[in-house]
Every structure is written in structure tokens, then in C-alpha cells.
Amino acid sequence: MPPSTPELVDFAALGLPQPLVRTLTRQGITTPFEIQRATMPDALAGRDVLGRGQTGSGKTLAFGLPLLARMADGERARSRHPRALVLVPTRELAMQVSDALFPLGRAVGVFLRTAVGGVPYDRQISALRRGVEVLVATPGRLADLIERGVCRLDDIEVTVLDEADQMADMGFLPEVTELLAKTPADAQRLLFSATLDRDVDTLVRRFMTDPVTHSTAPPTAAVATMDHHLLLIPPQDKFSVVASIAAREGRTMVFARTQLGVDRLVGQLAAVGVRAGGLHGGKTQRMRTRTLAEFREGRTNVLVATDVAARGIHVDGVSLVLHVDPPKDPKDYLHRAGRTARAGETGAVATLALPKQRRGTLAMLEKAGVSPAQTRVRAGDPALAELTGAREPSGVPVRDEPEPRRRAGRPDGARRFPDRHRRGEPVRSGDRRHPGRPAEGRSERPSTEGRSERRSGDRRFGGRPAASSY
Q1: Does some domain include residue 100?
Q2: Position 280 in a domain
Q3: Looking at residue 272, which CATH number applies to its domain?
Q4: By the 8 A CB rule, do 311 and 281 touch?
Q5: Domain final position from 190, 215, 240
Q6: Does the residue 276 lie in any domain?
Q7: SS (H, E, C) the chain
Q8: Same domain, 60 and 203
Q9: Percent of the chain with pLDDT over 70
Q10: Do 280 and 351 sit in the same domain of this protein?
């Protein structure tokens, strides 16, 4: 007798309010993912929930929908007192969570705001003073806002920790612990993570009450849907191999170890005809947002990033992840690799290793649960093209055109100064707002008659000769 398939369940059957169901339907989302089916009934019932699922498994809606449903049932938030808190490790992940939940919140009258570093405080403070139901924040910026006295966590009803293992890996555990201690002890807490290891367990034991655990996949489950390749290369061929892989068709994420390495590689790729965007913590939020938007929209097919900057980035259609520098930690490998083969798709992961890196890289991959195919390649080898889709770059340098400056209210770009004289008219002294009238409190400029002429640029101070130019 064939095994029975699980019955398909829609969002309404999980207990979600109709306004949210209708908004999801308009977005083309009708069937919950496994992590959503598993966790939403308990989350909607007010239970503390531990959810573990591989990257791209739908965790954002798994916590976001129950949170919005609860906020829609309550009163408006008081000034400076959000009712729900979503803590995330990076600015990019905060923006992604906000983008996913904002239209859903609007459908049920729930106001959502982000609080992240790298952007001015003014708008975040203004929004908090008006009242915010759901605050999506990074730990550092939230701590700053609390210290400034513009945000309090006394009214928090639901706290979500998204990508909790990444926050622990990035050293945010002390800040997260301090923030959670400021929330009411009886508040609901939802924790979602790719792994539930020792560091995350510390938070669970201290802050969660009788949590329900739902694990939809083991930590290394996602790697089974990927092809893993360890490419053994000679040192002198490293950049040529990277450039040919970056020139492939399809969306590619490239990982380098340092910020300097990212910037250098982006410049080197541009010089051989490959347009790439660079992403790391040293860039402003505006630059990071623009780079990600270009990558998502297909204007750039290659994104070069550091580990920290790429944490939590969710971009569909990434068909290859390339490790220019092999990671030392198996967790970093899994997080990097998780940018491809998302939501049931397939993908490939290629790791470059020099001869001296081979043994250490293989040991790291074994800990990550990966058995890669090992291939010795050089630039231009047919095997490289077969495994990764590599092709020869165009060789024509890429130059970014500067964006034209647009001036509000002047579509033709003309500069207008209503108080200035028209060309050809004599210029009269005095206040520019009232031509011909002496400025209030000042006398007319004294006449220059009788002064000795001096060449333009000659400056004289008493008897001191003008400084010579060089």
C-alpha cells in the first residue's frame, strides 16, 4: 500500500484571520510551507515556539503571520511603546522582514517600522513617538534607542528572534539577553533558527516557558539539494578562474573573507568586463540597499560579499555560490551555501582551494556534512566550464555611469534664483532681496576710487609681500 501524502492545508484552516488570507492570496501565496504548517497553530494559540528550518523554508511568514494576527486584535500602540519586537542580526534581514510583513500589516491596520544602524535616527524616533505596533530591529540600534529614552519594551506582547544562531555567532548574545530582560516575563516568545545549538539553548532556558519545538529539517538538510565542488587550483590561476566563473550566465554569489578583498575583487572583475556589486559592513546602508536591489532585479548578476554582510540575505534564483576564500567554520559554509537551492530549488556550490588549503578545507566540509567532488582545474579548462558554466570574460572594462542629479521642482534642471538680477542688467549693491537698498544695519560699500589696482589673486597685508605661488 503506497504511503499517504500529507493533506494540503490552506492558511484559513490554520486559523489565520481572513484579511491576512485575502492579502496572501492576492500575492499568489495560497499553500503554507512545512515550517508554517508546523508552527503557526501553536504560535496563534499564544504558545512559546522554537522553530528550526533550513534557509528559504518560509520562516518569516511562520512567525510574521501569527504576530500580525495578534496585533490586529489589540489596541493601538502607545507612544514609544511597541507591542511586538522582531530581533534580527543584520540590516539587510531587517529590511527583508519589513518588506514581507509591511503589506500584510497594512491589510489589518498594524503599523510596522524598522530600527537599524547605518541610517539616521530621526525617522525611527519620529515613528516610535507616533506609536509602532511591530518593531523590526537589530540589537545595537534598539539598545541605542532605549538608551536615548525614545523606546521602551514594557508593552511588548510578542518577541521574535529570527536567525538566532547567526546572532549568537556574530556575538550579539549579551545584547540580546539584555534586551529580552527588558520585556515582560509573560510575553510570548518565538525563536526561529537554522540550528538550535548550545548558544541558542542558553536563551531558550532563560527566557522561554514550556516551548513547543518544531524541526522541519536537520541542520545539514539543505546541502542535499546542492551540487558541491572543491576546485583545486594553482595560485597563479586563482583570479582567472574566479573571473571566468563570475562571467557565467545566471545569478552568482561570491564570498571573500575581508572587506578589502571584496572591494579589490569587484574592481578587478570590472577591469576584465564583469559587472559585480560589493557588499560588506563598511558600506553605507544606502549603498548596500542599492547593491542588493540591483542584484535582485538582475541589473547585476554577480554579488561579492563578506560573511557578515550576507547573513540572512534572501535572493531567489541564485544558481551558484562561489567561495573564493574557503570558510574556516562549517557553520559559515552552510550559511553561505544556503543562498542557493532555496525553497526546493537546486543549485551548486564551488569552493576554490590552493594546494596548501586542501586538507583544512576537506576537514571543514566533513564537519559540515558535505562530501564534495574534487577536481583539479586551471583557467580555460573545459572541466571548469562543465562544472560551473564558466566562460571567458569580455575583457572590455566596465564603467558605471554616474546618476544625473535631479532637482525637485526643476524638471528642466535650470537653476532659478528669483532675487538675482537678469543677465545684462547692472548689479546694484545692498541687500540681494531688495536690489538697490542698503542692507539693514550696514552702510553702503565705500568707494574704491583712488585705490591702487592689483592683479586678481594678489593679496597684500600691510607691508608684507604677497606669498609667491608655486
Answers
A1: yes
A2: yes
A3: 3.40.50.300
A4: no
A5: 215
A6: yes
A7: CCCCCCCCCCCHHHCCCHHHHHHHHHCCCCCCCHHHHHHHHHHHCCCCEEEECCCCCCHHHHHHHHHHHHHHHCCCCECCECCEEEECCCHHHHHHHHHHHHHHHHHCCCCEEEECCCCCCHHHHHHHHHCCCEEEECHHHHHHHHHCCCCCCCCCCEEEEECHHHHHHCCCHHHHHHHHHCCCCCCEEEEEECCCCHHHHHHHHHHCCCCEEEECCCCCHHHHHEEEEEEECCHHHHHHHHHHHHCCCCEEEEECCCHHHHHHHHHHHHHCCCCEEEECCCCCHHHHHHHHHHHHCCCCCEEEECHHHHCCCCCCCEEEEEECCCCCCHHHHHHHHCCCCCCCCCEEEEEEECHHHHHHHHHHHHHCCCCCEEEECCCCCHHHHHHHCCCCCCCCCCCCCCCCCCCCCCCCCCCCCCCCCCCCCCCCCCCCCCCCCCCCCCCCCCCCCCCCCCCCCCCCECCECCCCCC
A8: yes
A9: 78
A10: yes
Q: What is the mean pLDDT of residues 386-399?
A: 92
Regarding whether 186 and 92 lie in a shared domain, the answer is yes
Of 215, 241, 264, which residue is a domain's last?
215
Give the residue carrying C-alpha cell 604677497.
466
pLDDT score of 224 more than 60: no
Is residue 147 domain-shared with residue 169, that is, in the same domain? yes
Where does residue 341 fall: left (phi above 0), alpha (psi -120 to 50 degrees), or beta otherwise? left
Domain count, the chain: 2
Cell of 426: 547692472
256 and 300 in a single domain? The answer is yes
**Cell (9 digits) for 417:** 534664483
Q: Is 264 exposed, middle or buried (0-12, 13-18, 19+ CB in 10 A)?
A: middle
- The β-bridge partners of 464 are 461
Domain that includes residue 319, residue range? 221-388
**74 and 202 co-located in one domain:** yes
The per-residue pLDDT for range 23-78, each reduced to its tens digit, is 999 999 999 998 999 999 999 999 999 998 766 678 899 999 999 999 998 899 99
pLDDT digits (tens, 9 = 90+) for 98-144: 999 999 999 999 999 999 998 899 999 999 999 999 999 999 999 99
Tell me if 260 is assigned to some domain: yes
Residue 439 neighbours by CB under 8 Å, 6+ apart: 430, 431
| Same-domain status, 262 and 166 | no
**Residue closest to 273 by CA, chosen among 400, 393, 401, 399:** 393
Query: Do 88 and 168 have their domain in common?
Result: yes
